[in-house]
Design goal:
Growth Hormone, Chain: A, 19 helices
Length: about 450
């Protein structure tokens, strides 16, 4: 009884501590999108330049997330998170000084040489930031599969996944208020970085690694083939078989690619679109709209996890099919909103889209984690992350180029395109409707 009570305490302590820790990564990652309009207005930086920067940073993040997944399976999650977040904090403080660095490099106060240096400095800092951002999800995923049984993973992983939306929504509101009240893009980096620095201290104090690190037994009924050979060579063979040769991982990862195209189109370009579209909003209202999209996503993730375990017998792929199709319908409704429609209608539809979209996002790692077991769950999550962030080829450079070339003609059809992509993702993952529950040895 004492062990069960102690395990319950530590399980929720790890979940909550890692939620706070991972939300801090978003404070020092999604702030750039809110600085973009101010940077563009002040320095004349084009959407294409911003798009290229976002694409490079996103691809680097995908690769980093992929590599950190393999590291996370074998490393201490607590210190893995601390190192990654600390580096991101320092780089965000540096980002606020990018104009000063650009003047030193170009020797100019303005003009093409200065702007070129500014774009280069921002690109380098954002790429470095995303190198260390990759150390966020892998360690947290390791913690979840080591502390939560497979039959509870959808529900509790969905609760944990609120950290994405909590971080993104709060930083959206904070940065929207900063830009609206001060116009200072520098503060969009310095204030979130200061908050994230407090998060680093919180992780060090509160977080621990696996149950055995606090003297508790590991989860029952989670035996794997790797238990008999936990060597480096054994792990590599296990990952090759369970991850790289597993069709389930490939299908879920491809579906994640489509979902992330939709998600990043909203998160990365939403602040700009909402301020410049047919029904323009103020910076503050745009920030609140994106923030509410994320808050609705929180509720959607919790609902999706609970519904998966309660009504679908932990078969998350079935819930993903339904929710991705519903996301498509919400985005289609936004496309057909008339000019002059109330911002409230846009907000409600976007909130509904976030509610349905973030359910599958929370469940993807649950599906792959159960299939590849706790021994390779972070490697599979890294593979999933790599595919997810290939999406930035479209949402970064692709959207930037299309915006500069077609202007309002492109933006007016953006939600129609996103609706089609979302439905396509739902149809793809429907091919996994009847797969077995998990990959553990029973």
């Amino acid at each position: 009884m004492k062990t069960k009570k102690s395990f319950g305490y530590w399980q929720w302590r790890v979940i909550i501590s890692s939620m706070v820790g991972y939300s801090m990564f978003y404070f020092v990652r999604k702030n750039f999108s809110f600085a973009m309009p101010a940077l563009g207005a002040e320095y004349g930086i084009t959407d294409t330049s911003f798009g290229v920067i976002l694409t490079l940073a996103g691809l680097v993040y995908g690769v980093s997330k992929f590599l950190n997944g393999f590291i996370a399976d074998r490393a201490n999650a607590r210190w893995h998170l601390v190192i990654g977040l600390s580096a991101c904090v320092l780089l965000n403080f540096a980002f606020g000084w990018s104009a000063v660095l650009s003047r030193l490099l170009s020797g100019a106060e303005s003009g093409p040489d200065f702007v070129g240096s500014m774009v280069t400095v921002m690109a380098v800092l954002l790429i470095l930031n995303n190198v260390f951002q990759g150390a966020g999800f892998g360690p947290c995923n390791r913690l979840m599969v080591h502390w939560v049984p497979p039959k509870e993973l959808a529900t509790k992983m969905s609760v944990w996944n609120m950290s994405h939306s909590i971080g993104a929504s709060i930083v959206s509101v904070v940065c929207g208020a900063i830009i609206g009240k001060t116009g200072s893009w520098q503060l969009c980096f310095w204030i979130p970085a200061a908050i994230a620095a407090v998060g680093v201290v919180f992780i060090i104090i509160t977080l621990r690694d696996t149950p055995s690190s606090v003297g508790l037994p590991e989860l029952p009924d989670t035996k794997t083939e790797l238990d008999d050979d936990d060597s480096g060579a054994g792990y590599r063979r296990f990952v090759l078989d369970k991850v790289f040769r597993n069709p389930v991982v490939w299908i879920v990862s491809t579906t994640a690619l489509l979902l992330y195209i939709v998600r990043f189109a909203v998160l990365d370009w939403g602040p700009k679109f909402l301020q410049q579209g047919e029904n323009p909003l103020s910076p503050e209202l745009a920030g609140w709209t994106i923030g509410i999209f994320e808050i609705a996503g929180c509720l959607g993730m919790m609902a999706a996890g609970w519904v998966t375990d309660r009504f679908f017998h932990s078969r998350g792929q079935q819930v993903c099919v339904i929710e991705m199709v519903l996301t498509g319908f919400c985005l289609l409704a936004i496309h057909f909103l008339p000019v002059g429609a109330s911002p409230v209608v846009m907000l409600v539809l976007l909130a509904l889209a976030g509610f349905f979209l973030y359910g599958p996002q929370a469940l993807f790692a649950v599906i792959t984690g159960n299939q590849v077991t706790k021994k390779a769950a972070s490697a599979a999550a890294g593979f999933l992350g790599l595919f997810s962030y290939l999406s930035v080829i479209f949402t970064g450079t692709g959207v930037g180029l299309l915006s500069d070339r077609f202007g309002d003609g492109f933006w007016n059809n953006l939600f129609l395109i996103m609706a089609g992509i979302s439905v396509a993702g739902g149809l793809l993952i429907a091919s996994l409707w009847k797969i077995k529950d998990d990959g553990y040895v029973h």
